[in-house]
Design brief:
Layout: H1 9-12, H2 14-26, E1 29-30, H3 31-38, H4 42-54, E2 58-63, E3 70-75, H5 77-97
Antiparallel strand pairs: 1-3, 2-3
């Protein structure tokens, strides 16, 4: 039996799942690139990034060396572990649907 309580509610929200998927599969992303890829507003994206950051899943880095400040985000080791656990539960669901 699948333990649905193992689905991490912080990651489970669609926008946060999208962010975690991009950061987990492609590494560090700049805020503007995430915004363009996900089609999210500044406010919506920053809210979800803060939620993931508060959970310790995403780390923010700032680079002020250029003409414009650049903020990037990357998954932390705790975020990688949490995302893998989340995907493991999804895989168990898929296997339950296709037992053969």
């Amino acid at each position: 039996m699948i333990d649905f309580d193992q689905l991490d509610k912080t990651i489970h929200e669609k926008s946060r799942l999208s962010i975690m998927t991009l950061l987990s599969t492609r590494g560090e992303w700049a805020f503007q690139d995430l915004k363009a890829e996900l089609g999210m507003s500044d406010g919506n994206l920053i809210t979800h990034l803060r939620t993931l950051g508060t959970a310790g899943y995403v780390q923010e880095s700032r680079d002020d060396s250029g003409t414009r400040p650049r903020t990037t985000y990357a998954v932390t080791p705790a975020g990688t572990k949490a995302f893998k656990s989340y995907v493991d539960v999804l895989e168990a669901i898929v296997k339950a649907m296709n037992p053969g």
